[in-house]
Amino acid sequence: MTELTMSVAAAEFGRDMERCFHTVADLIERARARGSRLLVLPEACLGGYLPSLGGGTESEEARQRRLRSLPPALGLDGPELGRIAALAGDLVITLGFCEADGDIRYNTAVTLTGDGILGSYRKVHQPLGENLCYAAGSEYRAFDTPVGRMGMQICYDKAFPEAARALALDGAEIITSLSAWPTSRTATAERLEDDRWTQRFDIYDRARAVENQVVWIASNQAGTFGSLRFVCSAKIVGPGGEVLASTGTEPGLATATVDIGQALDAARGGGMYNLRDRRPEVYDRVVARHGVVGRPALPGELAATHA
């Protein structure tokens, strides 16, 4: 059995790309100094997130103004990710950015090393007015990496149990959840620890880990951007739902060392293997809107269909 040291960041990123690269390089150096083989950075860490979240209808003039405020749109094969790959070397790094696909923009996460991109993901679930700025992704798929089979999701995705479950059923042992998760817009609390969206963020992280019996790594933005104040709370959660390391409500880098195989065996080997013991024939109405019925695949079966 092999232990894996992992680090996850709560850090501040804005529109200044050179400053973003400097922050990423600093976090890489700190993670390496701790012996980490995996580093998880926040959503939108190359160019920052949206300055506000809207919703409802808006005029064409307001829409164009909103689109002009977006972060720079980057290509998967562009020099920006190439620059991160050069910094990564043999370190596995997951990070978020605004992806350009022709004229369409996506809120995207990638996992890469110095050898290139290992997996990419376009955010499926969009909160409030994010759909006014980004197109939505359409799938969850796990992928193999030098540190194990991984899955990715972004921010609001963690509020949907089906998202993490889809990745777990595709064999993901580690799920990275990248966020630009802000404080509540109403009934705000002076202390981040008391904010109800901070508490919601923490509940989702532990619940998604324990219900899928996976290692869950949650990054987040820090500080403020536009009208948003971020809750930090980056953490690594074990497959039993235990928080192994956390930044709390401060910027920082949380690090934990875990024997992934041993941790998964311990969580799943005590008579409670959640993925095995599901009763999907009872759950049809959960997914009936999309006409999906029958038994979803066990871990590895979906992977085989993608091979």
Automatic annotation (TrEMBL):
PROSITE patterns: CN_HYDROLASE. This is Apolipoprotein N-acyltransferase. InterPro entries: Aliph_Amidase/BUP, C-N_Hydrolase, C-N_Hydrolase_sf. It comes from Nocardia jinanensis. SUPFAM superfamilies: Carbon-nitrogen hydrolase. Keywords: Hydrolase. The keyword Zinc-finger does not apply. PANTHER family: CARBON-NITROGEN FAMILY, PUTATIVE (AFU_ORTHOLOGUE AFUA_5G02350)-RELATED (PTHR43674:SF16), NITRILASE C965.09-RELATED (PTHR43674). It comes from the Bacteria. Residues 4-260 form the CN hydrolase domain. GO terms for molecular function: hydrolase activity, acting on carbon-nitrogen (but not peptide) bonds, in linear amides.
